[in-house]
Amino acid sequence: MKFFADTVDIDAIKDLADLGMLDGVTTNPSIIAKSGANFLEVIPEICKLTDGPVSAEVASTDFDTMMKEAEKLAGLADNICVKLPLTEAGLKTCKHLTAQDIMTNVTLCFSANQALLAAKAGATFISPFVGRLDDIGLTGMDLIEDIVTIYDNYGFETEILVASIRHPQHLLEAARLGADVSTLPPKVIKQLFKHPLTDKGLADFVKDWESTGQSIL
Ligand code: E4P
């Protein structure tokens, strides 16, 4: 499974790249707004930190303006993946960008039928939002299971990018279902390393080694 970092935090992205846990980056307008970053400056900077896809989202909602924004974003770096909303205009834009060999990430997917449409439009990635479905009392992972089944049934090449992940259990379930990619807040990736028995076991090994008085170096 590929790990994308769901952030524009340059230090966090560098840290994950150094750990070998970075296969790409996703962003959205809310992440940009929260960070205070300049969108057209931070995206090219992020593109230099990974060879993987960096999702940059259009801001408009009509086809003509989306196409213009998408072409500008795609020109920022070779690894830009244009993020488009799951609307009629978004999927029409997706189809045109796919014909130009520009990577696309169709976002705000909340139903399996929407995911089917995105695959038919030739999306590189589909982003189902599991956390936001959980937030309204549904089970986000049921959507991932359905999309995996439907894409397998028809051999669609669109990659399933599990988004709106809130905790390690989401990642575990996405991996069990065979999703292609998970996009994760850096803090959730860091949580994956941790287990209390690892910490305790290591503390015991260090103490016992010290009691031998030996040195490896
Ligand atoms: C990523 O592509 C999505 O924009 C992101 O995962 C949404 O997460 P949220 O539901 O926590 O805002």
Q: What is the CA-CA span between the terminal residues?
A: 37 Å
Give the strand order, joined by hyphens, for the main sheet: 1-2-3-4-5-6-7-8
Low-confidence stretches: none
Which geometry do the CA atoms define?
A: globular
CATH homologous superfamily grouping: Aldolase class I
Topology pattern, helix = H, strand = E: EHEHHEHEHEHEHHEHEHH
Q: Structural class of the secondary elements? A: alpha/beta
Q: Count helical runs.
A: 11
Number of β-strand runs? 8
> Helicity level, as a percent range?
40-55%
For the record, the CATH class is Alpha Beta
Bound molecules: erythose-4-phosphate
CATH architecture call: Alpha-Beta Barrel
What's the gyration radius in Å? 20 Å
What is this entry, summarized?
This protein is of the alpha/beta class. The protein has helices at residues 10-19, 29-35, 39-47, 63-74, 88-99, 112-120, 130-135, 140-154, 168-177, 186-193, 196-212; strands at residues 2-6, 24-26, 54-57, 80-85, 103-109, 125-128, 159-162, 181-184.
